[in-house]
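Entry for the shared binder. Reason: the reviewer on the internal report wants the predicted structure included alongside the sequence.
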Amino acid sequence: MKPKGSILYLKPLMLKTKRLIDIGANTGFFTFELLDSGASTAICFEGNKNHADFIIESSKLLNQEGRIVVKMNMLTLSPA
């Protein structure tokens, strides 16, 4: 059943003990939300150094350091 006024209804995710990958993590909003919802660990790929640094510093402030790995290397896809 779709809640009144809602544009999109998502079924609850079973995140307990799940690991996630956040590609193009930006400032880590979804990473932090999913960790808060029960995911065990996260790997964030973020090419913008300022955003990656923000995630790292935020993880320290939120006591999530051991649960988040931030990688600055991004994949480049080229035509075959």
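Summary line for the report: The chain has a mean pLDDT of 84.
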